[in-house]
Amino acid sequence: MSEDEVLDAVGDRLRAFRKSLGYTLAELSDRTGLTASTLSRLETSQVAPTLQQLLPLSRVYGVPLDELVAAPAHGDPRVHLRPVRREGLTFVPLGMDRGELQAFKVIYPPVSALPPARFHSHSGREWFYVLSGQVRLVLADQVTDMKAGEAAEFDTKTSHWIGNAREDIPAEIIAIYGRHGGRVHLTDI
C-alpha cells in the first residue's frame, strides 16, 4: 500500500475506532482535547492528521500509532490482540484490519448476560467455527444449535442472529467477517 493510500484511509479508520468504542464526537473531544469539528474533519479526510492530533487518539483508543493509521507492516509479525466490547460480546481481532476479510475470536457470555436478540441483514457472507461452548445460529426462522468443532457459513442477506445457547458458560467462536459484516457487528452502521 502506498503512502497516499494509507493517508486516504486514515479518516475511515479513525471513525471506525471511535464508533467501535461507542463514543460521540463530543465525548472523544473531552477525552482527547481536540475539538469535535477537528475530529469530524479528520474522520471525513478533509484535513490530514498531524502527530499532535494522532497521539491523543492513539492513547484513547489504546492502539499504537502504526495501527491507528494502518501503516504498512514491518518488523514484528505478531498481531497485538486488542479486544473490543460491543453489545455484551467481546471481539478479539486475530489479524490486521486491511479493509477486507478479517478474523475475530468472539466470546459470548451466558444467555442471562446477553442483551436481547438483535437480527442483522447485510450484503456478504459470514463464516464461523465454534471453539467452545454451544452457539445458537438463527437464520430467518431456522434455529440451529452448534457445538465445539462445528462450522457454519451463510449469506448475510438472510436476517441472522448468533448467540450463546447455554445459561451457565460462555461460548467462543472464530468468525470471519467481510467489510460489511465487520461494520455491522463492530461499528453499528
Q: Which structural traits does this protein have?
A:
189 residues; alpha+beta; single chain; 6 helices; three-stranded antiparallel beta sheet
Query: How many runs of DSSP E, i.e. beta strands?
Result: 9
- Helical content, roughly? 25-40%
Please report which band the strand proportion falls in: under 5%, 5-15%, 15-25%, 25-35%, 35-45% or over 45%.
25-35%
Oligomeric status: single chain
Low-confidence residue ranges? none
Shape: elongated
Gap between N and C termini, in Å?
A: 26 Å
Write up what this structure looks like.
- With 189 residues, the protein is an alpha+beta fold.
- It contains 6 helices and 9 strands.
- The strands form 2 sheets. It has a 6-stranded antiparallel β-sheet, covered by helices on one side. Strands 6-5-8 form a 3-stranded antiparallel β-sheet, with no helix packed on it.
- Helix 2 (25-32) packs across helix 3.
- It is elongated.
- The mean pLDDT is 84.
Summarize the structure.
The strands form 2 sheets. The protein has a 6-stranded antiparallel beta sheet, covered by helices on one side. A 3-stranded antiparallel beta sheet has the order 6-5-8, with no helix packed on it.
Write the SSE topology.
Elements: H1 3-20, H2 25-32, H3 36-43, H4 51-61, H5 65-68, E1 84-86, E2 89-93, E3 102-108, E4 125-132, E5 134-139, E6 142-147, E7 151-155, E8 160-164, E9 171-177, H6 179-187
Helix pairs in contact: 2-3
